[in-house]
Amino acid sequence: MVRVAYVQLAGCCGCLVSLADTYERLLDILESIELVYCQTLMDEREIPECDVVIVEGAVCLNDEHMLEEVEELEEHADTIVALGACASTGNFMRFSRGNQQAAPTHEAFVPLTEVADVDYAVPGCPPAPEAIERFLTLLLEGKEELLEPFAKLAEGKTEYCGCDLMYHVVNKSMCTGCGTCAAACPTRGIEIVDGRPVVNESRCIKCGACFTQCPRTIWPGDEAIKEMIMGDE
Distance of CA 195 to CAs 86, 134, 174, 175, 182, Å? Predict the structure, then answer.
């Protein structure tokens, strides 16, 4: 049975809530794994040896304990998954400048993909329950070809922003006007005008949520997915 650890770093725990929103499908997943670590559900102090560690939240560079925790999960897990926008690209945590009441010295946050060797990243703030369930199913079934888009997102380019959306999608006539980018933007910095996104640069915090969730950025060109959709024709 696959041994899974769930680690929460700096964030709002929204990814865990979204995971729980898979309802009965979560029960099917839990029956096929052995959950060995989860700060919310278990009284474990150290991350044990495991096959997969799922991490949500950004990494605070001013928090020595959190940095040690990142080293620990790299040492004990075979596969590391960055779940959600904070762990994948930084999301709104990049905008933190400290002076929070609880921890005023915590002023620098980066995504997990910048400080650890991450195998897969699942975008979204939070990722949709269906996306989490589908990703975990593919992971547990070992469908590596279908996991390639998630592996590409984990390769460490975390500087995506609204400019990338304009350059790689809109300016290439690839935009369908679906509005996913506007819905994903945590600062409401994108408006759909005449069927196309318009980025308000003063609100862009370079979190990458718009670019990584655009259905035209990662999925096209993936031969495994094309084969799954089109068959052998």
Answer: 28, 29, 12, 9, 12
pTM of the model: 0.81
Q: Do the Cβ atoms of 172 and 196 come closer than 8 Å?
A: no
6: Cβ–Cβ under 8 A, 6 or more apart, which residues?
Answer: 16, 35, 37, 38, 39, 40, 53, 54, 56
Report pLDDT digits (tens) over 32-76: 899 999 988 888 888 999 999 999 999 999 999 999 999 999 999
Structure tokens at 175: 């935009």
